[in-house]
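Worked example 3 (structure in, sequence out).
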């Protein structure tokens, strides 16, 4: 979602819960081809409600923080931003399998397998 979509949700009185997985960049691309081009500027996403003048936010660094944030967000009737901090290469097993398979196919196509 973009800032404009979040702003529009506020204009129409909607109250989405937006979970941002903040791992400082593009993980899928990192697992395919790592490089500095996959890094993104460090934003303080939890400050977005302050910028919009409405809503609330939560910064999550532990599983307990996540549980508390989601419980509070579900009880709220306003936009909630939940910024979840993850390690740079934190990935699900499914994503790891996918990117390993894609990398293997790319080696076959390029003849370097």
């Amino acid at each position: 979602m973009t800032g404009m979509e979040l702003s529009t949700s506020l204009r129409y009185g909607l109250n989405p819960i937006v979970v941002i997985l903040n791992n400082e960049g593009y993980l899928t691309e990192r697992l395919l081809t790592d490089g500095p081009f996959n890094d993104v500027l460090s934003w303080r996403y939890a400050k977005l409600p302050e910028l919009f003048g409405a809503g609330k936010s939560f910064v999550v660094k532990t599983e307990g923080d996540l549980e508390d944030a989601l419980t509070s967000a579900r009880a709220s009737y306003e936009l909630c931003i939940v910024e979840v901090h993850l390690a740079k290469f934190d990935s699900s097993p499914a994503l790891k399998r996918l990117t390993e398979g894609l990398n293997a196919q790319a080696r076959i196509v390029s003849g370097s397998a």
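Notes: The two ends are 38 Å apart (CA to CA). The CA atoms of residues 103 and 109 lie 10 Å apart.
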